[in-house]
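Thread: Newbie trying to understand structure tokens

Hi all, I'm a second-year student working on a class project, and my supervisor (Dr. K.) asked me to get a predicted structure for one chain before our next meeting. I've only ever worked with sequences, so writing a 3D structure as a token string is new to me. If someone could post the tokens and maybe explain what I'm looking at, I'd be very grateful. Here's the chain:
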Amino acid sequence: MAPPQLVQLYKELQQTFTSGNLQQTGVLLTRLKIALTEAGLLVPLGNPDPQDLVIARDILEVGAFWSIRTKDIPSFDRYFSQLQTFYNDFGSVLPPSPREYPLRGLNLIRLLTQNRIADFHTTLESLPLRADALTGNPYIAHPINLEQWLMEGSYSKVWNAREEAPAEEYKFFVDSLMGTIRNEIASCEEVAYDSLPLKDAATLLFFKNHSELITFAQQRGWQVDLTAGKISFAKKTEEKVEIPKEKLILANLQYARELEQIV
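---
Reply by user tm_fold:
Sure, no problem. This is what the structure looks like when written as tokens:
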């Protein structure tokens, strides 16, 4: 059985996380990871008590959600990696967790935000679900749709997907995706246009108001003319590369002479 101190901390964690106190949740998670390590439950070996495994799994799942809410992606990666033992190795002996597929879906979207498309498909194929059941699970269907829309260039659908997220934590990754998309669109605008009306630029970049657009424009080094109501894009000057023609001709002639001598 798990030590009484671990069980007490676990109960405190549940209450604190539910109340939304992220700072205290982080403190408790640190203490609980030490307690799990001492109890041999962070990386379970042998035949541990299933009830202890459920407690350990719950703690790591809270840690994964806490990481997203505090926008700490490396921390999410660590917690999700540690959960694989509980989902895969002990999945047959533990009761299903209602948090498993929300976290699996979040991991899939994380791969999309990092442009790891090959890893996305590999992870998707390794899920313990039938192929026809993938789209029936809202937590998995969401990242599948996002990936399809990204490949199609249907960015407006990606934008609308934020409001259709199956869990609040999904919105964080959708926002991250939109940041990447905006930068890609902005790069295209800089090449295609000398300037754009503020309204058109805001629409193309999926900004709800001009203040968000102006902040983005300043980050890109664009010139904003509020009086004229337009944005001018800074054109990068092309560097002229001088080719040393005479040196190249002399080198080629010398090379030709050497070839004649060899022949």
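A couple of things are worth pointing out once you decode it. The radius of gyration is 27 Å. Residues 170-192 form the longest helix (23 residues). Feel free to ask follow-ups in this thread.
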